[in-house]
């Protein structure tokens, strides 16, 4: 299948379009959003020059599965999945923070820790920890949502003092974040995985908080294989991961970390195919289900036509 890296749909009632790093979001009558999960891939806040076939389908279907699996905790934005690459949902008024929760000292938190810091986002981290060790209790390390570039670490008190989120709403967001993470950890454990860290986005409709966007995907979350975790930790070895980290590692090994003047290494067809295979592997491990490739023989034009038909029919049914 050809990768879908650009969309320009003409959906009835469309009032605008937002193009993110990976998702193209269409506003329908200021009531619904059509979220098309493209095959674009980003790392270090840079959209890479080649798309990854099936990546959009992988992310969309994982998110849909976990939205359904957590809908008893709080309502979410999802209304329908009319196409493997598309979710249609309610338009929410988003909170201007992302709720990041970390059960283990990995990634950004580890880099801060390694630099000598013992607090992150105003939250203390114990002395004497090693990379990938489990925190005594999961910590919430929110970020402010940047329109462009990097999201910035921010503390609970800074969020409340700046008026980004009121105290009562923020404390509800913390409660929901912990409950969602507990559920994610339980599901991951059944798959032989550890949900290391993840992020959630929330919004409001008529004063009620809703879960938005993606959830527990390899782009928003970090997973370790449970088998061998303790042995690798004790030996100081790297953990086996299920996340987008392998793409970052490939880029770093080829001299790219998103810094000015650095050039993205060539993404050959074999590199692209390898990333597709890894995303499909991620899907199957995270969901425990075989991945069904959506019509591999279609050209990009035929895929776009399919999406237009499927979404148009869905929106007609919502009128």
UniProtKB/TrEMBL annotation:
Transmembrane stretches, start-end: none
Protein name, UniProt field: Phosphoribosylaminoimidazole-succinocarboxamide synthase
This protein's record includes keyword ATP-binding: yes
Family per record: Belongs to the SAICAR synthetase family.
Keyword Oxidoreductase: no
UniProt-listed InterPro entries: SAICAR_synt/ADE2_N, SAICAR_synthetase_CS
MF GO annotations: ATP binding; phosphoribosylaminoimidazolesuccinocarboxamide synthase activity
Domain SAICAR synthetase/ADE2 N-terminal: 18-255
NCBIfam families given in the database record: PRK12607.1 (NF009251), PRK13961.1 (NF010568)
A Pfam family matched in the record: SAICAR_synt
Encoding gene per record: purC
Reactions that this protein is recorded to catalyse: 5-amino-1-(5-phospho-D-ribosyl)imidazole-4-carboxylate + L-aspartate + ATP = (2S)-2-[5-amino-1-(5-phospho-beta-D-ribosyl)imidazole-4-carboxamido]succinate + ADP + phosphate + 2 H(+)
Cellular component annotations (GO), alphabetically ordered: cytoplasm
Enzyme Commission (EC) number: 6.3.2.6
HAMAP family hit by this protein: SAICAR_synth (MF_00137)
Annotated pathway: Purine metabolism; IMP biosynthesis via de novo pathway; 5-amino-1-(5-phospho-D-ribosyl)imidazole-4-carboxamide from 5-amino-1-(5-phospho-D-ribosyl)imidazole-4-carboxylate: step 1/2
Keyword annotations: ATP-binding, Ligase, Nucleotide-binding, Purine biosynthesis
Single Gene Ontology BP annotation: 'de novo' IMP biosynthetic process
